[in-house]
Amino acid sequence: MGVLDRLSFQLYSARKFPPLDAQLATLAKLGYAKVEPYGDLFAEAEALIAGLKRHGLTAPSTHVSLDQLRPIPDSLIHHARRMGVKLAVVPAIPPEQRSKDVEGWRALGRELAAFGEKLGVHGLHLAWHNHDFEFERLPDGRCPLDHLLEAAPKLFWEADIGWLHAAGEDPVRWLEKYADRIRAVHIKDAAPEGERPEEDGWTDIGGGVIDWNELMPAISATRADLYVVEHDNPADFEGFARRSRWAMAAW
């Protein structure tokens, strides 16, 4: 598969530009075929499912909060399967739940492993999506992400390149380290330091400081079959989606 065959769009990037159906129509018009919903959209699951069908879109992955998995409601599985979801991704945990010790992260890993087993019965895989806090060193000198993935051997990883960069990490090293665990990648770019404060420092794909020519070979060497475009706070959702797709089409 080529880059555009794997291309998806995280709908969180469009959240400030309602209504939902218009967002889906715009993405379809721009040539996107896949989207990645976020947890809050399950509150309007019927509208989302209808919109996907209306605009010829699929949702092979979705974000779900940890609270939505405690316990896993039948409705979540039902709606996810109707959307065509194969990969459910936990995007983050609140600061107060972020352990400062090894055992706390390993306990979370075991909990996620149990959720993954339950989802697996229904044909769904579970993954973790990183921010920057998973790379803060613990007392043993290792990162929370290492312990999380070790404690949950079947848990996949949705690697967010933008947040790896924000954490001061070398994305290539992490992509190579966990190539077999990566099933999706968030393609996110960072503006030069001090620029785009109104967009929280993020920018269009290919318009920032991340060297995608260096990264794409490492990304393509992973198991990822989804390249999910994301911007946490775009000033112009449609412009971001258009320009980012153009950039990725060149890869």
Summed up, what is this model?
The chain has 251 residues and is of the alpha/beta class. The protein has a single domain, classed as Divalent-metal-dependent TIM barrel enzymes (TIM Barrel).
List its salient traits.
alpha/beta, 10 helices, single chain, 251 residues, TIM Barrel, eight-stranded parallel beta sheet, two-stranded antiparallel sheet
3D architecture notes:
This protein has 251 residues and is α/β, with parallel strands linked by helices. The chain has a single domain (3-249), classed as Divalent-metal-dependent TIM barrel enzymes (TIM Barrel, Alpha-Beta Barrel). 39% of the residues lie in helices and 14% in strands. The chain is built from 10 helices and 10 strands. Strands 2-1-10-7-6-5-4-3 form an 8-stranded parallel β-sheet. Strands 8-9 form a two-stranded antiparallel sheet. α2 runs parallel beside α10, α5 (102-120) crosses α6 and α8 packs parallel to α9. The protein is globular. It starts with a helix and ends with a helix.
Give the proportion of residues in helices.
25-40%
CATH superfamily descriptor: Divalent-metal-dependent TIM barrel enzymes
Task: Give the overall form.
Answer: globular
Level-1 CATH class name: Alpha Beta
* Total number of strands: 10
**End-to-end CA span:** 12 Å
CATH topology: TIM Barrel
Radius of gyration: 17 Å
Low-confidence stretches: none
Multimeric state of these chains? Answer: single chain
DSSP strand content: 5-15%
The tally of helices reads 10
Largest sheet: 8 strands, parallel
Element order: H for helix, E for strand = HEHEHEHEHEHEHHEEEHEH
CATH architectural designation: Alpha-Beta Barrel
The total domain count is 1
The structural class is alpha/beta
Spatial order of the strands forming the largest sheet = 2-1-10-7-6-5-4-3
